[in-house]
Amino acid sequence: MGPIILAIESSCDDTAAAVIQNGTILSNVVANQEVHQKWGGVVPELASRAHMANIIPTVDLALKQAEIEKSQLQAIAFTQGPGLLGSLLVGTCFAKGFAQSLDIPLIPVNHMKAHILAHFIDDPKPNFPFLCLTVSGGHTQIVLVEDHAKMTVIGETLDDAAGEAFDKAAKIMGLPYPGGPLVDKYAQEGDERAFDFAKSRVPDLSFSFSGIKTSILYFLKKRMAEDPEFIDKNLKDLCASIQRNIVEMLTDKLVKATKKTGIKEVAIAGGVSANSELRKQLGIFGKNRGWNTYIPKFEYCTDNAAMIAITAHYKYLAGDFGDLTTVPMARMKI
Question: Nearest Cα to 266, choosing from 117, 114, 122, 142?
Fold first, then answer.
C-alpha cells in the first residue's frame, strides 16, 4: 500500500484538509470564510483568525470522512506558499505540531505547483511534457511541465492577475465579493460582442491586465455620467463582454505558447479555470488545433487540499521532505 498523507491548505481564505492513500483522495474538506464579503475582499488578519478557528474541525472531519486514524498517517503536508503570510503560518504551525506529535515527516508544498498537479488526481492525466495555463486571483502563468517536479514558467503577468481583473471589474459594477463567479453567471445571458475594451500590448508570452481594468473603469464612468442606470440596464452584456475580453487575452497567449514550444498537451488550472467561458474556449481550441486538453473538476480548481495531497504523494515517493525549520513564504516561485 502507498503512503497515507494528511494535507492542509491555508494560503488565503479557505481552510482545507484532505487525506490521500496511494495516490487516491479519500476525503477533501473545505471551510469557507464568509467574513470577507462585507469588506469586498480578503482581509488578511480576519483570514488568519478564521483559519485558527477552522483548522482543527476541518482536519478532524477530513480524517473521519477518510476513515483514517491519526496513528495511520505517514506524513503531514502543508502549503508553504505563496499566499498570505498570516494564513500560511496557521497551517504551517499546525502541521509542524501534528507531525512532531506523531513523529512522522513533514512535506511542504508549493501552492502553484499543486494547482497544476491537481490534474493527476483523476483520469485523464496529461502526458509529459505539457503546458499549463495557471490562472487565479493572484497569479497568471504559462508553465512548461516536464515531470511531477520539474516545472518552468515561460510566461506570466507583468502586473495584475486575471482573477483579480474579474473581481475588480465586478466591484466597479457594484457586484458583491467574490465577483468573478458572478460575472460568469450573468455573462451566460449577455451579448459578448456588445462592448469592447482596450487591452495592454505586451511582448512574447507575458500578460498585463492593468490596461483592461483601467479601460473598464473609464468606460463605465463615462456611460454612468450619461445614464446613471447604465450598469443596471446592461449588466449581462457588460459581464459577457468583460469575460470575452479577458478570456481572449488568456487564450491568445496560450496559442502562442503552443506554437513556440510545439507542445499540444494543454491544461488549465487555478481558480479562474472554473470559468465557463475559458473552459469552453479551451475545448474549441483543442478541437480546432489538435490539442489534447485537460480541465480539472470544479472542486479542484479553487483552493483545496486535495491538490496539496497529490503533490505531497509524489514528493513522498521521491523522498522530498521538509523539517521543523521549514518556514512559510508569502512569495514563492515555481
Answer: 142
Residue 221 lies in a domain: yes
Can you give the CATH number for the domain in which 19 is found?
3.30.420.40
Answer whether residue 261 is part of any domain: yes
Q: Is the pLDDT of residue 33 over 70?
A: no
Burial of 304-333, coded b for 16+ CB within 10 Å and e otherwise, reads: bbbbbbbbbbbbbeeeebbeeebebbeebe
Number of domains comprising the chain: 2
Exposed, middle or buried by CB within 10 Å (0-12, 13-18, 19+), for 221?
Answer: exposed
Measured CA to CA, the distance from residue 22 to residue 3 in angstroms comes to 5
Angle between helices 85-102 and 44-66 (to 10 degrees): 30
Cα distances (Å, whole numbers) of residue 240 to 158, 254, 291, 303: 25, 21, 26, 25
Can you give the pTM of this predicted structure? 0.95
Q: Where are the alpha helices (DSSP H) in the chain?
A: 44-66, 85-102, 111-117, 162-172, 180-187, 210-226, 230-261, 276-289, 306-317
Q: What is the pLDDT of residues 121-163, one digit of tens each?
A: 999 999 999 999 999 988 999 999 999 999 999 999 999 999 9
**Range of the structural domain that residue 247 is part of:** 125-296
Q: Classify residue 12: in a domain, yes or no.
A: yes
Check whether residue 149 and residue 62 sit in a common domain: no
Same domain, 84 and 198: no
How far is the C-alpha of 213 from the C-alpha of 217, rounded, in Å? 6
- The answer to whether residue 38 scores a pLDDT higher than 80 is no
Q: Kindly state whether residues 88 and 235 are assigned to the same domain.
A: no
Cell reading at 307: 491538490
Dist. CA 24–CA 1, nearest whole Å: 11
Q: What is the rounded CA–CA span in Å between residue 249 and residue 207?
A: 8
Q: Which amino acid is at 190?
A: G
Kindly state whether residues 134 and 263 are assigned to the same domain: yes
Mean pLDDT for the chain? 95
Assigned domain for 333 exists = no
Residues 266 and 147 grouped into a single domain? yes
